[in-house]
Amino acid sequence: MSERDALLERAARHARDYLARVNERPVGATDSAEALQARLAVPLPEAGDDPAAVLDALAAAAAGGTVATQGPRFFGFVVGSSLPVATAADWLVSAWDQNTGLYVLSPLNAVTEQIAAAWILELTRLPADWTAGFVTGGSMANFTALAAARRHVLEAAGWDVEQDGLTGAPPITFVVNDEAHYSIATSLRMLGLGMNGAVRIGTDAQGRMRMDELQSVLKKIRGPCVVCAQAGNVNTGAFDALEPIAALAREHRAWLHVDGAFGLWAAASPELAPLLAGIEQADSVATDAHKWLNVPYDCGIVLCAHARAHRGAMTLAAAYLQESPRERDPREYVPEESRRARAVPVYAALRSLGRAGLRELVERCCRHARRFAAGLSAAGHKVLNDVVLNQVLVSFGEPDTTRRVIAAIQRDGTCWCSGTEWQGHTAMRISVSSWATTDEDVERSLDAMLTAARSAGASGG
């Protein structure tokens, strides 16, 4: 056996051992930063250590230094596990080591990206002629979409932002949901637009944009405008009313962007798809495949109704680039040049799940969320949101009591949940996003939550 083959076999064995234990180990990391430093912070070798020993050291550190997001009972953030087929496909991506920027560099990966994008548009009921780009995550998907929006609305006002920059450009008004994910603010900062000029629209008790306020604001705006709505609030799972928002955006010639990082995948379920009514009238959508589609990091997806604006905001020419005159070059739709084949695990996940499998995955996670809400509510704890998707917010009384419950759950290790602040309440957030979570995992986690609540002095009704 060659050294390369031996190392790959060794890595595969470590990976199998890790995944074999992930369901039953404590969900939170058990090693401190100091312990990990002690394990890994050796002096940089002069001649280099044995490659097998390096792999062994990393695998040993992973036992206590990782969080079991690959397991079935991590509910702290909207983080899905990785489907086995997606993990295996990602291994192939690393073995192939292709730069998926130009078609000529990797025809297989360029074509796979086209196919995966077409499937996503079909599944989410978006027009087939929309363009798509595969980026690092939801934040970069939002950034790319808003870069296309910036180009489009300024071009309509007679300004070429790619050539002339922002100095002297007509101001753009960004209208955002007051509960917008922070990646929207990050995107505006990276685009040189800042958040101070954004108009924040108030929300209702579930975090949905108030339509009366949006209508009033849009009536007063003159000049380029971009409206940012969301499909799936990160705390409550609520959806903005996309159909009337789209109608208002069209009326006022505004670009409508929808942040659907996890909520877009609700389109796979006939039961949940009405939450997305009107999304096909948007100008751009961002989503994240390593959330509910359960593929490995990193994989965000930007979808855009305006090919010219999308490509124009991203593409630059260079004399040495051998661009294909006929085939699609993936680099034209993303900020990166050197990039891994993110669409391959997406292709593997979608093809192996099929429509029925993806629908069942989404609906099962939502059913689990409803069970958590029912069990906690029956024990007298206050569920703060309407559980319309896979998110549950629960308060255990006073803020300090809720924090103690969260800390106790994290120490126990049966499951892992995180805290949040929601409209004046300190709450625990339960996000159910993993293909691996079973009914038994939910009941086991619910018992652990209720035990932690009792130990922390949270009084049920």
Topology (elements, then pairings):
Layout: H1 3-21, H2 33-40, H3 51-65, H4 84-96, H5 107-123, E1 131-135, H6 138-156, H7 161-164, E2 173-177, H8 182-190, E3 199-201, H9 211-220, E4 225-230, H10 242-251, E5 255-259, E6 284-288, E7 300-304, H11 307-314, H12 343-378, E8 382-383, E9 391-395, H13 399-412, E10 418-422, E11 425-431, H14 439-455
Question: Can you describe this structure?
Answer:
- The protein is of the alpha/beta class and 461 residues long.
- It is built from 14 helices and eleven strands.
- The strands form two sheets. It has a seven-stranded mixed sheet with strand order 1-7-6-5-4-2-3, with helices on both faces. A four-stranded antiparallel sheet has the order 8-9-11-10.
- Helix 6 (138-156) crosses helix 11 (307-314) and helix 12 (343-378) packs across helix 14 (439-455).
- The chain is globular, with a radius of gyration of 23 Å.
- The protein starts with a helix and ends in a 6-residue tail after the last helix.
